[in-house]
Here is the input.
Amino acid sequence: MSEWDGHLRIATTTSLETTTSSAVYVLRLNGGQLTQAGKVDGLGKSERIYSVRFIGTTGYVVTFRQTDPLYTLDLRDPSAPKVVGELKIPGYSAYLHPAGDGRLLGLGQDANEQGRVQGMQVSLFDVRDPAHPARVAQHLEKGGYSEAEYDPHAFLYWAPLGLLAVPKWDDRQPSVVVLKVSDTAITEAGAITHPGRYTTIRRSLIVGGTLWTLSEQGLKATDAATLAEQAWIAF
Here is the structure.
């Protein structure tokens, strides 16, 4: 859901008897009641919504079953919202995050042609031309997944450094994957772990030039630029 200029925008998936379909509805308050100003439907037939982001008068909707259609929506006219672009790639983004002018980050899962997930995927999209969204970079963590796929509080993007930090779980030691994001690339900067074979890091934040990571075991302070460990505070 998103409120903009007195209108409420809602993206929803409807399950019918044999299929599903998604839509974005634009509602307005009229005499104490919410009434429909406009809608755009028919998104991702036989699929369901995995993520949505509204940024001003533009909307982004990801649906998934076997491939990941990223729809760009023009919401400038509340009475006539419309799809203006679509990008189909394997897998899906479960969370979308703005990353500067005309850039969008997606976090989710890669998938094969049959729709079977393969591991954590970070995508960088160029959405400067809403009619032609494009993925310009991708980072894969085979077999991994992240809490940030369903809880955005676990997602950290620090624009001044182009730094992205997300927790990753797999059959090895859990960690926080630290990536550097530019306009055209995603590069791996390193990984942060906490003591203990199965210690799961839940949150990350920046304070000054320090990247703090939090788990049930304690807090670790890491230099945000070099990833050199600064301190460990056990609970």
